[in-house]
């Protein structure tokens, strides 16, 4: 195995909520020491890359904005390629809205015509937002989802994710969304471009079979499931999505990679 880089999930892999997972700091330091490229790849659209830098810093993990790709930023890139100076209705939080405004797309609260309805995680989601999204999609707006995660892990619980909101809008509008985040190849290809590597040179690390590992399979990259988040060992036998490697935590993964490097030399 000759990997030159990794795409690394955050929620459930590096931390849960605001609590760093064991050995996350040491794992990132190991990658840096070995000169192995990496990119944090998160489906969470509620924070900007700079906010993730600060969050990781609070956990003593050094990072840079260029090492982080969010589903919100990937969605904004998609919109900018879809149309110049478009108009959108956004179910999402401030980070997603800022990313969209940064690519010169307008955001409106009116129920007139828009080019796209964008749905991400919104912790103030309500019936009125659902009603507006339904109306606009039924009147021709593209339906775009930042990501499909129905849940996400917190310190001591599992919270509803953007996928739960996407499901509600999909049920109301009777339309399937264009999904931008993992496991979409769109976000995967942006990530590979940022790393400057081919998929055969990259490993994907994450805690979810249906997003992280599925993206890896679609990219034909090596996949590493860590059992510190959503997917558990018993889920693997029930799923058609099979990771190449399974580890209890990042410490086990680090030991494995060290052994691979030792055998290579």
UniProtKB/TrEMBL annotation:
The keyword Metal-binding applies. NCBIfam families: HAD-SF-IIA. Belongs to the HAD-like hydrolase superfamily. NagD family. SUPFAM superfamilies: HAD-like. It comes from Dictyoglomus thermophilum. Its cofactor is Mg(2+). One of its GO terms (molecular function) is phosphatase activity. Substrate binds at residue 182. Pfam families: Hydrolase_6, Hydrolase_like. This is HAD family hydrolase. Transmembrane segments: none annotated. GO terms for cellular component: cytoplasm. Divalent metal ions. Mg(2+) is the most effective. Mg(2+) binds at residues 9, 11, 207. Keywords: Hydrolase, Magnesium, Metal-binding. Gene3D superfamilies: HAD superfamily/HAD-like. The active site is at residues 9, 11. Signal peptide: none annotated.
